[in-house]
Amino acid sequence: MSASREVIERHKKYMFPAVTPYFGDDAIVVSHAKDQYVWDIEGNQYLDFFGGVLTVSVGHCNDEVNQRIIEQLNKAQHTSTLYVNEIMVRLAEKVASITPGRLQKCYFTNSGTEADETAVLAARMYTGNQDIIALRHAYSGRSMTAMSISGHGTWRLGSVVDPHVRHVRSPYLYRAPKGIHNEDDLLDFLVEDFEEVLATTTNGKIAAFIAETIQGVGGFIVPPKDYFKRILPIVKAAGGVFICDEVQAGWGRTGKKWNGIEHWGVEPDIMTFAKGMANGVPIGCTIATPEIAEAVKGMTFSTFGGNPVTMAAALATIAYIEDHNLLENADVQGTAFRQHLDEFKSEFNFIGDVRGMGLMQAMEIVVPGTDKKPDAARATAILNAARKHGLLIGKGGLYGNIVRMSPHLNVSAEDMEAGCQLLAKALAEVG
Ligand SMILES: Cc1ncc(COP(=O)(O)O)c(C=O)c1O
Questions:
Q1: Same domain membership, residue 129 and residue 47
Q2: Cα–ligand 1 centroid distance for 166 (angstroms)
Q3: What is the CATH number of the domain that holds 126?
Q4: Are 18 and 142 in contact (CB under 8 A)?
Q5: Distance from residue 273's CA to the centre of ligand 1 (Å)
Q6: Taking 80 as the threshold, does the pLDDT of residue 160 lie above it?
Q7: Domain region containing 32
Q8: What is the CATH number of the domain that holds 393?
Q9: How far, in Å, from the CA of 54 to the mean position of ligand 1?
Q10: Is 313 in the same domain as 339?
Q11: Global pTM?
Q12: DSSP bridge pairs for 135
């Protein structure tokens, strides 16, 4: 039995079966990782174009980030929110300075799930309303509220208990209803659908509309340019606030801007972050306008929220992005990446759609000659072939047929080229 197989067998014996790694019985057992590379315990090296789901944003074990983590680890490792640590305040100041509009007050937690939970709680306490409008194809995490918001049957385990979450249609142009072929028609349809859901499933008053800027787990679904501008007035008229989930699209991932939503020219009332914010150290962050934050009356506490080591990791990640001009790099390398993917689309007829922004790019895999029939088997085959050639990429989408890729924000031109060559080989093999 290989060393990997032995660990996988123990994983199966002692972990919940619902914890399902990529590649199943042939899962990658990671030994170590540095910058753009990951090594498994068999000694295989991989170029990482996924970052553990858009989380390693500036390279594995980044020297500058880790140096700051180690310094803080040796200085003060834990406080809980019962004590003030200055580094938490510094991160809150920084987040307030680079988020749009009047967003000013932060609450730190440990995950995207908790960040979204906090946002929903704040919206409900601020508005006095309960109903939440979410999107089909959304993903919000694994608490009861977050699973209730998630618009993927596969991620709604057990009985979903929050009866106040309603789902409207996703701004998913590639899979829009029959007869809708362009963004303008889609927008008209989405506005109508939103108004109908409001009129038929709520009393007309809502707490919030929660949406990812780009639907991540859904398969990097990019809403039309005017989507939020068309929807938000309806949300406001119903008394609701806009919760923008930037767990995947945040921290420079979309190129040029810190926050994905800035590309849509609207100002959220609440934003949530996690994943790439601290380069892999567990973090969740909810930022709200002062009046929304102040509406969360009473006491609340998080043992690990605002942990000083986590705060140091996030500040160091942000500093690294600034010092190395990575918002620009994400745009430049994202454009180069997209050119390759568009070429692949003309070459391989099983690529139905290519979409994304910056260093968040996806290919939707379909059965050629059909009406966009999802081809999950071929998407899995692409992941397997890429792995064989030493490239890590991801998968997603309701039907499991979307190949998702998110190279680190500091990916070099050479690595971008090398990754695309490996991807080309993988695509040719499954063609
Ligand atoms: C958009 C979005 N929101 C929330 C979450 C939940 O984050 P976490 O897994 O850190 O709880 C995820 C996780 O993938 C996500 O993609």
A1: no
A2: 19
A3: 3.40.640.10
A4: no
A5: 9
A6: no
A7: 3-58+325-430
A8: 3.90.1150.10
A9: 10
A10: no
A11: 0.98
A12: 168
